[in-house]
Amino acid sequence: MGGFLTILVTGGAGYIGSHMVHHLLESGEDVVVLDNLSTGVKENLPTGSELIEGDAGDDALVSRLFQSRSFDSVIHFAGSVVVPESVAHPLDYYRNNTVASRSLIAACVRHAVPNFLFSSTAAVYGSPPVMPVSEGTQTDPVSPYGRSKLMTEWMLQDAAKAHGLRYGILRYFNVAGADPKGRTGQSTPRATHLIKRACEVATGHPGKLTIFGTDYPTPDGTGVRDYIHVSDLVDIHEKVLRKLRKDGASLLLNCGYGHGYSVREVVSAVERATGNLLAVETADRRPGDLAIVVAETGKLATLLSWKPQYADLNVIVRTALDWEKRIERARDFPS
């Protein structure tokens, strides 16, 4: 992209954020990472990355940062993302997601930072009556996590009307996989993502993979989700940023492939990749889980002329498994 100004990436040491930082630096961008390292991993950043340890909601820190550098864009990944945890600790989620985002958006307005990309979620839709889910589907989140993200979407839209801030709101479906070059991956302790957990079990972690619900109205009785490879997701971010810089038109987009895989299909893909059966147990459905969640992606293709590079479950699983093996080797042979 060759921009001469700087991009601030909050949560840049996290799972998706670290992939974004690698991608941006490869594209010739100047990047500053802001991360409190509560879940992020410093070692997953490129060598020589500029990392500021701190919170995206710290007004004083962000103001000093904006005064010291010329930022033309913020890509905001920082936040809390576990739905059941948000139900147990809702106020933490409103603080970490909504309040911190409000503070960051206000700083962008004060310091005339024109572009803001926001990491949102399909959880804003709640339990939609029709699949696939389009951007025009009514939002009705059922968890504090989904509500905290939707509130931030509203703040961005209102700030755009009042102050001219340009935004890209990206509603993620199920992000999975790892950098094909092996530089970074999902390293969050106690991660709950299905493919991450399946790869953990496959590489010798204690316990079994739990399948929650085997009686859904799906072909094999297990839940179906739209999994998008993390490298395709960060490519979407780059294209949205490019479009914001070019014509200034704000965007709200679903980020998925438009088709889904069941839990059992994921298990089978991991078994094919390893050549071994996976230790699996079944349990009752979890409250709030839907049978099928799949994105309508026509807007993504039309507005960005975007085509995925990794839209294959076997590729997603292989990259995730390679990363998990790398983590295991690092544990066994620490440097």
The number of distinct helices, counting runs of at least 4 residues, comes to 10
The residue ranges in which pLDDT falls below 50 over 5 or more consecutive positions are none
Cα end-to-end separation:
36 Å
Which strand order spans the largest sheet, edge to edge or round the barrel? Answer: 3-2-1-4-5-6-11
List the helices and strands in order: EHEEHEHHEHEEHEEEHEEHEEHH
Report the sheet-strand fraction.
15-25%
Structural class: alpha/beta
Basic shape: globular
Biggest beta sheet summary: 7 strands, parallel
Radius of gyration: 19 Å
| Record field, number of beta strands | 14
Approximately how much helix is present in the residues? 40-55%
What's the rounded overall pLDDT mean?
Answer: 94
How is this structure best described in words?
- By secondary structure, the chain is of the alpha/beta class.
- The chain contains ten helices and 14 strands.
- It has a seven-stranded parallel beta sheet, sandwiched between helices.
Helices, strands, pairings?
Layout: E1 6-10, H1 15-26, E2 30-35, E3 50-53, H2 59-68, E4 71-76, H3 83-88, H4 90-110, E5 115-121, H5 144-163, E6 166-172, E7 174-176, H6 194-202, E8 209-212, E9 224-225, E10 227-229, H7 230-247, E11 251-255, E12 261-262, H8 263-274, E13 280-283, E14 292-293, H9 298-304, H10 313-332
Parallel strand pairs: 1-2, 1-4, 2-3, 4-5, 5-6, 6-11, 7-10, 8-13, 9-14
Antiparallel strand pairs: 9-12
Helix pairs in contact: 1-7, 2-4, 4-5, 6-8, 6-10, 8-10
